[in-house]
Structures are given as C-alpha cells and as structure tokens.
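Standup, Tuesday
Yesterday: got the pipeline producing structure tokens again.
Today: sanity-check two examples.
Blockers: none.

Example 1:
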Amino acid sequence: MSIPSDLKKELEEAFFFFAYDKDRKISSKEVGAVVRSVGLNPTEAQLKEMMNEVDRAGGRVDVPAMTRILQGRMKEQTTSHDELRDAFQVFDKNGNGQVSVHDLKHSLTTLGERLADEELDELVREVDQDGEGQLNYEDVVKVLLGK
C-alpha cells in the first residue's frame, strides 16, 4: 500500500519544520511529533516500533526513509482496521453499528493495548459529538487508526 500523495506532501512539510539540520533528517526522538503533525495517531507501541526502525537505520531518517516506514505501518493498519471493527462488533448488542461509551471505555482500558484516560476522553469527545453516549464504532476505528 502506498502513501497518499497528500499525506506525502504533509510529511515533506513536517520534515521542513522539524528537520532543522541541512541534511533534512529527523531523529528517532522526533518521529512522534512528525507523525502526529500529519494527522496520524499511532499507539505508543507503534510509535516505539517506528522509533526503533529509525534507530536501526542509523538514528536519523529523511522523507523517503520515513515514507517507507509509514508504508509498512499502513499495510499493518489495513488488517488492524478489520480486526478492530470485528472486536467492536462484539460490544454491538443491538447490531446497529453502535457501541456504548461505557463498553468502549471498558474495552480500551482493560483489553489489549490500553489507552490512557486522557486519550480515551479525547477519543470520546471527538466521536460522541451529540453526547448521547452511543458511538458509531466505524468512526471510533477511524480515529484510533488516525484516518
């Protein structure tokens, strides 16, 4: 899976901002800021994996190298999207594509890779815009995967 051209352009702009050196490379410590600045929302574990890849590549990467790293992550996310959607279907008691905020909080703070309370509150604010306490889990999956 290739990176969309608009994301690649945003990545180039982020590198221009974050890569202060003439070589236009970022260090592993800057990966999180760069990735999040282009609208992606990796988990801490995914971020650590990306940082490790940068470290293995000599500790600094340019746009093409970071693009390759992100392409690998995007392939993984295709599977992750389906897996996350399937996981939320378990909590969809009515079969209507909705999950309650309570069930979402329980699943994301106790099962699998846990979200911090602040991250979870931000997610609920973003997805539960009507405040009814029922979330479309496709929207939740999109936010979790940074799409």
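Example 2:
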Amino acid sequence: MSTLPLDLILYISDIGNLSIKDIFHLSQANKLFREKLSHPYFWHMVYNQKIGKIYELYGISEPIPESNYYRLCKEHLRRFNEIERELNDFNESKNYKIRDYITKYSLDLVFLPTLLYFLRQEDFQIKLNIRNKSNTVEFSKGVFLANLVAGQSFNIGIKMLTKFSEEPLNSRSYESFWFAFSLLQKKSFKLIKARNLFLEGAAETLRKLTTEYYPLPLVDNKYTFKTVDEYSNKVALYTQLLYQSYCDIRCEESNYMESTNLLSMYSGRHKGDQLLVASSLIKVVDEELEALDIRITSGEDKPKLLLAPMGTALIGDYCVPFLAGHPRVLKKEKFLNVCRSISEPLANRALLPITKDEIQAMICYYGTALKFLDGLDVLSPPCHPSTYGDDTFTFFGQFILPCLFRKEVSNFNMQILLQNVRDFLVNANHIYYPIFSRLPILSGYSLLIEDAPQYLPCNYSPSLLQGKIVITNRSDAPAIVVGTCNDSSFYQVLNAYGELERLRDTSFTVVDRVKAEEVETFVELVGLANLIYVRIKGVSLREGEEPRFIIE
C-alpha cells in the first residue's frame, strides 16, 4: 500500500470509513508512509474528508484559521481521542448527567465531526444487533452520543435562525430558514446528507437548461443580455421549468408536520409544502446564475429574484406562480388581474415579497404524519421512520421562535416567552437548557429547571409489564411501559410519537409476537436521543421470549 498514489490512499480512507486516528496510524506505519503522507496536499484532503465535509453538510462556512492542515487534523485527532476515552470509560451515570456533557461537547462546533462519526458507528451497531437478534442489545452509548449530536444540531439551528433574524431577506434566506428549523429535530443527523444531494441535483437540472435546452446568450464568450426585461424573462423561464421538474414533490395540502420539515422533503420520503419547494429552487437559480457573471449591455442592474406568498417567484416585471397545476411565466399585471377576480386582499399580497413573520407563521400545528396511522401500522410505516418529525418543535416554532430574536420585548410578552421556554424544556427536551440559558434575550432570567431531574420521575422497580410493547387506547399507538407512577396504580408509557402517557393497565393492550424489525422501527421512530429521559438502556431479544426493553 505504501506504493499507492496519494489520491488512491485518500479514496480508500473515504470509502473504508477510516477514522482520523486510523489515518494517523497509517501515516506512521513505516518510513515510506511517513514521507509519502507528509505532503501538505494529503492533509488538506484529509481535512476536507473528515472535517470540512461535515461542516458543509450543516451549512457551516467557518473560516479556516490557518493553512496548516496537518496541524488542524492533529487537533481533530486530540478531540477524537478525548471522545473515545469518554466512551471507553462509559457508565450509565454519564447519561444521568447529560446536561453537563451537552455543555462540554455540544456548544463548540469543533466536536461535531467526531461526535457524528461515533454516533453513526453506534447507530449502525445497534441496528445490526437487533437484526441479528442478539440476546441483549445495548443502547446506552448510542443514546449518550445521540443527545450530544442533538445538542450540536439544535445549537447550529439556533445560530442560523439568529442570523436569519438579523440579516435582510434575499433569495437564499428562505431555504436557510427552513433548513435551520429542520436542524432542531433530534433525528436530523440521519437526513443531513439529503440536502446537498437535492440541491446538487436541482443545480444539475438547471445547468442543462442553461446550456443545452435554452442556452444563455453568449457575446464575446460572456453571457450577455441586451435589456433587463430580456434577462428577467429568461430567468423566469428557467424558474418555471425548474418548478415544473419538481411539481411531484409538492404537497397540495400541508396537513402534517413533515410538509414543513425541509430535510424530510429533501430525503424524498415526504412531500413538502409548495413554499419549501419554491424556497429551495429559488436558492439554486440565484446561486447558479450568480456564478456565471451575467452582464446587461444597457448598464442596468440585474433585478433580484424574490419569493412571494404561495411560492410565487418574482423577477423584474415577471412572476412564476407555483400554485396547483403547472407553473407558468406571467407578466405581473396579468397575474394581479387573475388574483383580483378571486379576492382583492389576495391581490394586495400576491406580489409582495414574503416577510420573515409570514414565513414563521407557516409553522402550523398539524402533528406528525405518524398520527394518521393506526395501531401496529405505525411499526410498518410507508416512509422511513427517521423522516417522521418531532411535533414538539411546532410548539417551538409557534410560541417561542417569534419572540426569541427580537431586540425589544415587552415585559408581558417576556413572561409569556419565559413560560413557553419552560414548557418546551420539560421531559426529554431538558437537554437544551445549556443552549437556551446562553441566549441574549434570556440572559438574567431564571428558567427554573436548573435542578430539574434529568430523567422521568417514576417508580422504575421491575414489573411484569415493564419494558413491554403495548398499544394504547388513547393514542392508538405502540408504546413502551416504562414504570409505575409514584404512589398510584397508573403506568408511565412512552409512545412511538415520543410522547409520555399516564395510563391504567386497562388502557393499553400488550402486543404479542413482536418482530425484531418492529423493535428496530420503534427505536427509529422515537429516536435514540429520547430514550435517555425514560432510562431505556437496551432491549432483550432472547430466543423463545417476547422482546422486552431494558429499563434501569
């Protein structure tokens, strides 16, 4: 292997999923390797592979402080070894003090690539062990890492939303908002790669339109238009054709939460609200055309590409409505006449660029699409379980986000915001306390959860029902019996939506003949990060016995 070209070694390290530690070991294997792998190009590529690529997936464009990529990789190795030691010395007490570890590892971006690497390893091993029906499948390390990555993702999303609130709107802001909002989901790491794949696919479609089917005008080897109107018409045409190419992923009626979850839409397993689809495609058009350095010979400035309500694209005197049916390029005046024939208030807003408040107001509470399924159907959903959303974040979007980044908030609204934040931070969301406590608007206010228990207060003493999968009468959903409520005959159960229910044993039915794949689906639906609060540390799949979740 020491005779292989550098690029081939890099390729092997990528497809072989070698860790940064493996690569450093490889670079010290012998004298020939030390000489070959000391080249600055090699460490530049390793940085891009193991660190830069992760930042790119999360939309992070942090400036690299220096060009010494070997040194940057060495620092990454140090953090890798630190997390590895935490896992090697792991015990359950770390999960019971998870907020301390969120503070330590989730508030600094430099730990993200390492945490994500170990989480993916653990997540894969858990699934493999369930599929192989191992006697006991341990979740604890995966649960620990899933919470740290959830903290990282939430922190990144909050920072992006802060930036969105502070900067003027442009054609790329819309997509950035929806992407940031989707990062607040604890399972977003499972879908994070979908964003670049979708946007690159749309960009490739646009490049074919601009070079093969409807080529841009070339004058002296430069893309040149005579007038603003000619340019606007052409951009509107490209937008229309791109809209048309993605009509099939548009949800005609946004009646469930996943339609406003951008990563879920990007994954291809759920359709998205028309405004989400339009936001993504507008971003692609703007970025691709900007990269071409297009000129207008009349000397006029190129008009900006903007977005109006219902996904209508605006450019110059043209618009491209993205309503039901096929998109069309229309003159703005003609579109306004159509709107006036329907409703004057509609016409008044039809061509005004959408505002930040209007974007935020779109986050409506419909609940996750899972709630449209019945009983055991939830464990064999038509979509991959990782694409289903956590509907606690619609509460965040509706009742916290509108006030969170305002420079001035009245005392009355401040008290409402504080109460909403406290309500959001109950149960499994308590892990986000270190993030909220550092937000400027909440500085100096007590959130009253500093000493709150980091797991569900209930009686965890073993019982015949503890750890069993049941179907609840109220939500008609699979659930795990966690324990009994203190000083009562009620049981605490965690359902597949991630909700806690307090029920009598007459309010649920034990499920028999549970399959290993149904156990895997349940864990995927709830998410590893949500298991920590109810002290679920694994599952027993002993042959001849019904699966039973292990609760400490």
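Quick observation on example 2: The chain has 21 helices and 17 strands. The mean pLDDT is 91.
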